[in-house]
Amino acid sequence: MEHELIRSERCGKVALVRLASANPLNPLTDALIDALVEEMQRIDSDPAVHATVLTGSERAFAAGADIVAMSKLDHATAFSEDYIGRNWDRFRTLRKPVVAAVRGYALGGGCELAMMCDIVIAARDAMFGQPEIKLGIVPGAGGTQRLPRAAGKSTAMLACLTGEPLSASEALAYGLVSKVVEPDVLIGEAMRISEQIARHSLPVILAIKEAVNRSFESSLAEGLLFERRLFHAGFALADQKAGMAAFLGRRDAAFSNR
Ligand code: CO8
């Protein structure tokens, strides 16, 4: 799909979506987020696609919310129009895995967008930060909630209270990203991981994403019960029969996604 703000293409069972604003820092304007969530929801409902890579430009995954627009915002408008919630909250309802491939700046809303993805792969030049405090605001799309879950309280406090960014290697050490690679192989690596995911049974992919996300929303006992029920339900799938028969027959499984 060609759009003035995003580019989207399909490579087999994987979609590759790029934030492509005229400004390579990809300020996250309302229009950009609207276009992004619309395309991500379209991909989510396409049975031929099993996983998505989301990336930005060479300079930035995204340098945060649109400061020009925010500088004019008042409380009544932000509250009445549900600024951020109106479109961003649709991103976290996506059911298929999203792999963020981050080059350059991932700041403010950009860092929060990366953290909304399921796996984050960073180029060596990536920088992650929540600089909102320098603008006199609090992070608004999950920085104070997802960063401590990903990287622990002390790192989250340090990042949010100083506004100073973390390097890719720091982000790796703190668990915010899964892997750091050289910039020129970033997209290839994110695609390779996504293709590896996409080879599997779609209902099982969806169930695993749902179960891992449930661990952030529930007690351990509730989460374990949720997982056990999904595990039991899995025996109703033709793909469970196909996967186990393929293992026993020493061949690769061909999943029907049923
Ligand atoms: N919004 C709007 N315009 C921006 C933004 C932004 N976030 N970031 C950069 N720009 C613009 C600059 O104003 C400049 O415009 P112009 O050319 O017209 O003067 C152009 O992009 C280039 O920027 P710089 O000259 O500053 O480029 P540098 O290479 O010197 O610096 C930086 C790059 C370090 C990324 C720097 O631009 C910067 O610090 N940007 C702001 C980063 C920031 O504070 N981000 C957090 C924003 S607040 C936020 O995200 C709240 C989250 C709320 C939820 C999410 C909602 C979407």
Would you mind describing this structure in some detail?
With 258 residues, this protein is α/β, with parallel strands linked by helices. It has two domains: 6-198, 2-enoyl-CoA Hydratase, Chain A, domain 1; 202-248, Lyase 2-enoyl-coa Hydratase, Chain  A, domain 2. The chain is built from twelve helices and ten strands. The protein has a six-stranded mixed sheet, with helices on both faces. A four-stranded mixed sheet has the order 4-6-8-9. Strand 2 (14-19), helix 1 and strand 3 (51-55) form a beta-alpha-beta unit. Helix 5 (109-116) crosses helix 6 (143-151) and helix 6 (143-151) packs across helix 7 (153-162). The protein is globular and about 60 Å long. The mean pLDDT is 97. Octanoyl-coenzyme A binds next to helix 2, strand 6 and helix 5.
